[in-house]
Amino acid sequence: MQVFKPILAILGLLGIVAGGSSLFFNLQQLSNEALVLQSIAVLAIAAYIILATLYSYREYQADLIRNVTFDKTTNTPLTFKDINSIQQAEWILDALAGGVIASTLEGTILYINNHAQRLTEFTYKEARLKPIDLVLKLEGNHLSTQQVLELNLQGDPEQHFQFEHVKLTTKTGQICFLELHTTRLSIQTDLIIFIFRDISSERKVISRLYRQAAHDPLTGLMNRRSFEQYVAQLIQNNGESLNTHVLVSLDLDNFKVVNDTSGHQAGDELLKQVAQIFLRAVRRTDKVARMGGDEFAILLEKCALDKGIHIMESIQHELRGFRFSWKGQVFNVAASIGVLEIKPDYKGEISETFASVDKACYAAKALGRNQISVHMAQPANTKVFESESMRTDWAKLLQDAMTQDHFVLFVQPIFPLQDQVCSPYVHFEILLRLPYKKTILSPGSFLPAADRLDMMARIDRWIIRRVFQLMSQHDLKVANGIEPRFMINLSSQAVQDIDLFDYIKQQIAQWQTNPKLLCFEISESVAIANFVHTKRLMKSLSQLGVSLVLDDFGSGFSSLSYIRDLPLSYLKIDGNFVHNLVSSPVDAAMIKAVHEVGQVMKLHTIAELVEDGETLDQLRTIGINFAQGFYCGKPYPFLELCANGIQPPSLARRE
What we know:
By secondary structure, this protein is an alpha/beta fold. The protein is 46% helix and 23% strand. It is built from 25 helices and 25 strands. The strands form 5 sheets. It has an 8-stranded mixed barrel with strand order 16-17-19-20-21-22-23-24, surrounded by 4 helices. The chain has a 6-stranded antiparallel beta sheet with strand order 4-3-8-7-6-5, sandwiched between helices. The protein has a 5-stranded mixed beta sheet with strand order 10-11-9-14-15, with helices on both faces. The longest helix has 36 residues, at 31-66.
């Protein structure tokens, strides 16, 4: 037994030196050297604990045997006769091993030391002769206390088992994490020894260090390294899951202006605020990263391309309404956005993947900034987004889209939530897309340019004519006689067009369109800014038999005093409230208030941006009449609706 002492001294010294050196190399960021020394330290300390425990155990083994009472017929240990003699070894076990519990092979506790009593919150008297799984409640990696017992029974005598990061639930329900060692020893009878120590504090330190290494210190978002690693792993595993994902690159427009005029402190504050806008706009499962400077990236997992574009449009909508204020100066904020679809068969390298989405972002900047550009994944040798092709003549492009019918109409279904909503119509919103080279531009990509060029009123007329034409050319009735009602958005320029009503009336006559199948949407902000024109146009359309919607309602509650003068049929609740409904009690209260206003005025309420079942259920509970969003149905081409006919309202298209 004397040979143990010098061995223990050497191992202890080796563990301390190796551990200290490992810490030094970690601080110097020399990860390879640190890893080697950490391994030496762990092995030395583990050997030290095992040998020290064996040494201590042999010293009081004879005393332990003398103080155990055995059943004379079965030779099974029943209890300890002299607790005081065992307490003489407590300080050794506490110092060397931490918590120690000895049980029979069946799991009956015979001994529990002071340290184990403190960790489990069971006293010696409470734990003695109790089943071990009632005292030592373990979980982790499909591991239970009973499974630990079975492993020791199946193993060889004195075989050592080690378990890392095992969760322990204490007597009062507290949670801590353990490093657990077990073995089966034979004294006068077989015992199973549990030796464990609390590593909860170490886990917190490791978690904090990992977060610091994986996240941007300014915004708290993922950093470039961790984000790229996550995306690389996702692409590697994607062939097995058969899921489609959307990778997004965002670059703030004119961020340099803020830095140059107000300083880097203002720029840092802007980045933090914009990061929060991005986090609010995406789903809980999505990943947002700051890639460096004013560049951000978003990964939308298990997300179709159309839905991803819709989320990016909501971000642009948020940014358009956001004003960054710094010491009396106010700045507008916008972002150029590049989008890349990652299909299940995508096999691109990670560097190629990020190069492609960055090119899409550069293309968005070349299109005039504050745009969304979509890049379909292509082979690495395909040249896309050549810089010389990005000098776009927007006036000519949009004019040709109208005269040559290059625009494409999409529809998005609007789903009824309440059984008592007995409507003779199936509702759809009309959406606009523009094919451009090898991409399909969303409205956020070209409508700002159209607005600057005063072309919005003409584009709205093109939409009206095209919708009426398609309705005239196809029989779109549902089997039960239910008909479609199409909701068409009107821009601010269209509302101010004094000849618009006459044009709508003329088109209805030309295409023999039923006015009851039409519904025009005007956003709350447009209606308030142009209230006289809005009121005149709405009253004229209402007399014609057309229904009317106030869109984005709730974004400015100053409109409450105006809406009673408008002949409305629907209120569309601002999607920003709906998006955060589940997580924000304030937004839930706002939605409920809007719905109550609608009930008083006998108006149907429609919730936009419904992205998940939990939001849908809560909207139904509040009493909202209709829901619109990717969970209810994604947009698809109007011509597809004409070809396949109108299906009864369902959630079938949400996938």
